[in-house]
Amino acid sequence: MIESHKSDFRKLCINRLKFKSRFAKIKKDKIIVDKLIKTIDILKPKRLLLFIPMGLEVNVLPLINKLRREKKVEVYVPYMQGDSFKAVKYRLPLIKKRFGIKEPFNSFVTKKIDLAIVPIVGIDGVYKRIGFGAGMYDRFFGRLNYKPTLIFTQTTLCKTDKILSNEYDIQADYVITS
Protein backbone atom coordinates (compact mmCIF):
# COMPACT_ATOMS: atom_id res chain seq x y z
CA MET A 1 0.00 0.00 0.00
CA ILE A 2 2.83 2.41 0.86
CA GLU A 3 4.46 1.81 -2.54
CA SER A 4 1.36 2.94 -4.50
CA HIS A 5 1.08 6.09 -2.34
CA LYS A 6 4.80 6.67 -2.80
CA SER A 7 4.48 6.26 -6.57
CA ASP A 8 1.52 8.67 -6.71
CA PHE A 9 3.42 11.23 -4.62
CA ARG A 10 6.49 10.83 -6.86
CA LYS A 11 4.37 11.55 -9.98
CA LEU A 12 2.80 14.60 -8.32
CA CYS A 13 6.23 16.01 -7.41
CA ILE A 14 7.69 15.38 -10.88
CA ASN A 15 4.72 17.10 -12.53
CA ARG A 16 5.12 20.05 -10.17
CA LEU A 17 8.82 20.33 -11.07
CA LYS A 18 8.11 20.13 -14.82
CA PHE A 19 5.59 22.96 -14.51
CA LYS A 20 8.15 25.48 -13.23
CA SER A 21 9.52 27.86 -15.84
CA ARG A 22 13.07 27.55 -17.14
CA PHE A 23 13.92 31.09 -15.97
CA ALA A 24 12.63 30.40 -12.47
CA LYS A 25 14.74 27.22 -12.34
CA ILE A 26 17.96 29.06 -13.25
CA LYS A 27 17.34 31.62 -10.52
CA LYS A 28 16.43 28.94 -7.96
CA ASP A 29 19.49 26.85 -8.88
CA LYS A 30 21.73 29.84 -8.15
CA ILE A 31 20.05 30.46 -4.78
CA ILE A 32 20.49 26.80 -3.83
CA VAL A 33 24.14 26.66 -4.94
CA ASP A 34 24.85 29.76 -2.82
CA LYS A 35 23.21 28.05 0.20
CA LEU A 36 25.21 24.88 -0.47
CA ILE A 37 28.47 26.87 -0.59
CA LYS A 38 27.68 28.42 2.81
CA THR A 39 26.80 25.02 4.27
CA ILE A 40 30.00 23.44 2.90
CA ASP A 41 32.02 26.31 4.39
CA ILE A 42 30.46 25.57 7.80
CA LEU A 43 30.71 21.75 7.66
CA LYS A 44 34.21 21.72 6.07
CA PRO A 45 34.14 18.24 4.50
CA LYS A 46 37.30 16.76 3.00
CA ARG A 47 35.45 14.54 0.54
CA LEU A 48 32.10 15.48 -0.95
CA LEU A 49 29.70 13.40 -3.04
CA LEU A 50 27.73 15.48 -5.53
CA PHE A 51 25.79 14.48 -8.65
CA ILE A 52 25.86 15.28 -12.35
CA PRO A 53 22.47 17.04 -12.71
CA MET A 54 19.70 15.91 -15.00
CA GLY A 55 16.83 18.13 -16.22
CA LEU A 56 14.69 18.41 -13.08
CA GLU A 57 17.56 18.36 -10.59
CA VAL A 58 19.39 21.37 -9.18
CA ASN A 59 22.23 22.41 -11.51
CA VAL A 60 25.20 21.90 -9.19
CA LEU A 61 27.81 22.11 -11.98
CA PRO A 62 28.82 25.68 -10.96
CA LEU A 63 29.40 24.33 -7.44
CA ILE A 64 31.46 21.41 -8.73
CA ASN A 65 33.60 23.75 -10.84
CA LYS A 66 34.12 26.18 -7.92
CA LEU A 67 35.14 23.40 -5.53
CA ARG A 68 37.54 21.88 -8.04
CA ARG A 69 39.16 25.28 -8.71
CA GLU A 70 39.63 25.98 -4.99
CA LYS A 71 40.97 22.46 -4.30
CA LYS A 72 39.80 22.53 -0.67
CA VAL A 73 37.43 19.59 -1.13
CA GLU A 74 37.75 16.38 -3.14
CA VAL A 75 34.65 16.09 -5.33
CA TYR A 76 33.14 12.67 -6.07
CA VAL A 77 30.14 11.73 -8.19
CA PRO A 78 28.17 8.52 -8.76
CA TYR A 79 29.46 5.93 -11.20
CA MET A 80 26.70 3.41 -12.06
CA GLN A 81 27.53 -0.13 -11.10
CA GLY A 82 24.91 -2.89 -11.10
CA ASP A 83 21.87 -1.93 -9.01
CA SER A 84 23.66 1.00 -7.38
CA PHE A 85 26.79 3.10 -7.87
CA LYS A 86 30.17 3.82 -6.40
CA ALA A 87 31.68 7.23 -5.69
CA VAL A 88 34.42 8.18 -8.17
CA LYS A 89 36.47 11.34 -8.39
CA TYR A 90 34.89 13.94 -10.68
CA ARG A 91 36.98 14.48 -13.79
CA LEU A 92 36.43 15.18 -17.45
CA PRO A 93 35.41 13.97 -19.95
CA LEU A 94 31.94 12.88 -18.91
CA ILE A 95 30.23 10.10 -20.85
CA LYS A 96 26.49 9.48 -21.15
CA LYS A 97 25.40 6.15 -19.70
CA ARG A 98 22.29 4.37 -18.45
CA PHE A 99 19.19 6.58 -17.90
CA GLY A 100 21.00 9.34 -19.89
CA ILE A 101 23.17 10.07 -16.85
CA LYS A 102 26.60 11.56 -17.49
CA GLU A 103 29.53 10.32 -15.46
CA PRO A 104 33.34 10.26 -15.54
CA PHE A 105 35.31 7.15 -16.38
CA ASN A 106 35.64 4.50 -13.69
CA SER A 107 38.36 4.84 -11.08
CA PHE A 108 39.45 2.38 -8.46
CA VAL A 109 40.12 4.74 -5.58
CA THR A 110 37.61 4.30 -2.77
CA LYS A 111 37.59 7.01 -0.12
CA LYS A 112 35.29 7.74 2.79
CA ILE A 113 32.73 10.45 1.89
CA ASP A 114 32.19 13.08 4.62
CA LEU A 115 29.24 14.89 3.06
CA ALA A 116 26.79 13.91 0.33
CA ILE A 117 24.50 16.26 -1.56
CA VAL A 118 21.67 14.18 -2.98
CA PRO A 119 18.94 15.21 -5.45
CA ILE A 120 15.36 14.49 -4.44
CA VAL A 121 11.96 14.45 -6.09
CA GLY A 122 10.30 14.95 -2.71
CA ILE A 123 10.43 14.04 0.98
CA ASP A 124 7.96 12.38 3.26
CA GLY A 125 6.87 13.22 6.80
CA VAL A 126 10.08 11.91 8.41
CA TYR A 127 12.39 13.62 5.89
CA LYS A 128 13.18 10.46 3.98
CA ARG A 129 14.01 10.73 0.30
CA ILE A 130 11.56 10.15 -2.49
CA GLY A 131 13.69 9.77 -5.61
CA PHE A 132 12.99 8.69 -9.16
CA GLY A 133 12.29 5.13 -8.02
CA ALA A 134 15.41 3.15 -8.95
CA GLY A 135 16.69 2.95 -5.34
CA MET A 136 20.34 3.53 -6.27
CA TYR A 137 21.06 6.09 -3.54
CA ASP A 138 19.32 3.93 -0.91
CA ARG A 139 21.45 0.92 -1.89
CA PHE A 140 24.66 2.96 -2.03
CA PHE A 141 24.24 4.44 1.46
CA GLY A 142 22.82 1.19 2.83
CA ARG A 143 26.02 -0.64 1.86
CA LEU A 144 28.35 1.83 3.57
CA ASN A 145 29.66 0.91 7.00
CA TYR A 146 29.45 4.55 8.10
CA LYS A 147 26.97 7.41 7.64
CA PRO A 148 28.10 10.62 5.94
CA THR A 149 26.14 13.82 6.52
CA LEU A 150 23.30 13.96 3.96
CA ILE A 151 21.93 17.10 2.35
CA PHE A 152 18.87 16.72 0.12
CA THR A 153 18.28 19.36 -2.51
CA GLN A 154 15.56 20.31 -5.00
CA THR A 155 14.53 23.58 -6.65
CA THR A 156 11.00 23.44 -5.23
CA LEU A 157 10.34 21.38 -2.13
CA CYS A 158 7.65 18.76 -2.56
CA LYS A 159 6.82 17.44 0.91
CA THR A 160 4.07 15.37 2.42
CA ASP A 161 3.32 14.92 6.10
CA LYS A 162 2.53 11.25 5.42
CA ILE A 163 5.15 8.56 5.97
CA LEU A 164 5.72 7.00 2.54
CA SER A 165 9.21 5.66 3.06
CA ASN A 166 10.52 2.24 3.86
CA GLU A 167 13.06 1.40 6.54
CA TYR A 168 15.90 1.34 3.98
CA ASP A 169 15.13 4.79 2.49
CA ILE A 170 17.76 7.41 3.32
CA GLN A 171 16.98 10.31 5.64
CA ALA A 172 18.23 13.89 5.40
CA ASP A 173 20.36 15.69 7.93
CA TYR A 174 19.60 18.90 6.00
CA VAL A 175 17.22 19.89 3.19
CA ILE A 176 18.17 22.82 1.00
CA THR A 177 15.72 24.32 -1.50
CA SER A 178 15.04 27.78 -2.82
Strand order of the largest sheet: 3-2-1-6-9-10
Please, how many helices? 4
> What is the C-alpha radius of gyration, as a whole number of Å?
16 Å
Q: What portion of residues belong to β-strands?
A: 15-25%
Oligomer: single chain
Q: Tally of extended strands?
A: 10
The CATH architecture is: 3-Layer(aba) Sandwich
CATH class: Alpha Beta
Q: Could you name the CATH homologous superfamily?
A: NagB/RpiA/CoA transferase-like
What portion of residues is helical? 25-40%
What's the number of structural domains?
A: 1
As residue ranges, the low-confidence spans are none
Description:
By secondary structure, the chain is of the alpha/beta class. The protein has a single domain, classed as NagB/RpiA/CoA transferase-like (Rossmann fold). Helices cover 32% and strands 21% of the residues. It has four helices and ten strands. It has helices at 2-19, 22-43, 61-70, 136-142, and strands at residues 47-49, 74-81, 84-89, 95-96, 102-103, 115-119, 122-123, 129-130, 149-153, 174-176. The strands form three sheets. Strands 3-2-1-6-9-10 form a six-stranded mixed β-sheet, with helices on both faces. It has a two-stranded antiparallel sheet with strand order 4-5. Strands 7-8 form a two-stranded antiparallel ribbon. Strand 7 and strand 8 form a beta hairpin. The protein is globular, with a radius of gyration of 16 Å. The model has no long low-confidence stretch (mean pLDDT 87).
